[in-house]
Specification:
By secondary structure, this protein is α+β, with helices and mostly antiparallel strands. It contains eleven helices and 24 strands. About 4% of the residues have low confidence. It is 31% helix and 16% strand. The strands form nine sheets. The protein has a six-stranded mixed beta sheet with strand order 4-3-5-1-2-6, covered by helices on one side. Strands 9-12-13 form a three-stranded antiparallel beta sheet.
Amino acid sequence: MDLYLEELERAIRSGELNVASESARGLANLKASVALTCSEASYLPERKISVKVVIEDRYISDISITLNLYPSMKFEDLKQLVLEKFEFPVQVQKWIAGKRLARDIDTLRSCGIRQDNDVLYLYLVSASSVGLNKEVLQTQHQRTHGFSETIPDAQLYTTGVQDLATGWQCPTCTLINEPTRPGCSVCGGSRPEEYIVPTGYELSNNERLRMEQEISFENLVIMERESNFRRHLAAEENDLIANADEFDCPVCFERIGAREGVMLRECLHTFCKECLQSQVLHAESAVVSCPHVDGSQLCLSVIQEREIKALVSDEVYQKHLTLSLTEAESRAPNSFHCQTPNCNGWCIYEDDVNTFNCSVCEKENCLTCKAIHEGISCRQYQNDVKYKAKNDIAAKRTQHKIEAMLRKGDAMKCPTCDIIVMKKDGCDWIRCTMCKTEICWVTKGPRWGPMGPDDISGGCQCGVDGKPCHPNCQNCH
């Protein structure tokens, strides 16, 4: 077996492939246990490699720094370097390479760290778990003072602090940072608020470069904001926002080219124009919803009015406006539609208003009689309705409607002049439009006694001795 080993070593050194192959085959036949080691001289002249170091502990993770190191560097030397630069005690440093815990005698190369961007993991255990105290740490720091000069080829691309006594200590990871740095370069922790940059401190080259980069970045952010604002203004000038990229319409599944569809403003969902036009055309409500459906979830956003107007023809848009007005009228309290046939005019009235001058047909509507009777009083109109009801079918229908309202309590006769009055809304106090008598709606009688307002000798006497005039009184005074 020794002969095979000597022959294999000689063949490998001289580059004799066939001899090396035969020697290796002979060792394999003997099932020999063999370990091969290359001497350091066998490697090409070393160059520094850029190693990414990921630092973790029980509180932080995924914080990385970059070290320029030789692959032949041992981990015991690497621990001393980190102690010098970061003041992380050797005992708390646990280095992981290639999914295994590295030993102090191991080199970076032996653990697979051989080229740029290879990754090492440094896990920091607590000082108490390894029996460290303040005195031990100070002694250790004194022993390692000037250690970086013993490894001149190890370069650290992190803080660039000129002197460990200069700068501020991160309260999270204890790293000494440059005086002007606003946050820790390792863990990102904030600089202590009480820290003040020393008077007369001169910026290092790294600090100057960093501050120039920060100013440049801030300028870029400002420029990007201004650009975004200009694009926003440009988008506001257009009623429709076109899609930037191709997409499949979620309604018709057609492929829509760039800038051929529409992106809705409220929800940013995109559709083809034809599907949105159909959505508006067949909408049962004036509020047109976004047609997007995600499983069983409907989009709650709506198509804005300016988008509807830009999507459909003038004829369809007028129908949409008509539907909008109709819905608004039906939903509005105290609304009244003009009694002129085929007139679209309507209003929302206050409780103390008795007439509505329609701006569409220019007719005056009586809100008390719910009719148009220009030139005659409410009493004359109601008497005329009674007279015509004997022969006129329409008048008879009106008379029957008034009688039904009286029976249901939706109308009443004025206790003074006997014309029919109705309460539009609000409290139980009403005033006859004919004789101006103040009436209590719930008792169907006068509000005050014969002497008029404030005469509580008669009327409904609401509020006398703190009692309402009726159990259902809704404030008639």
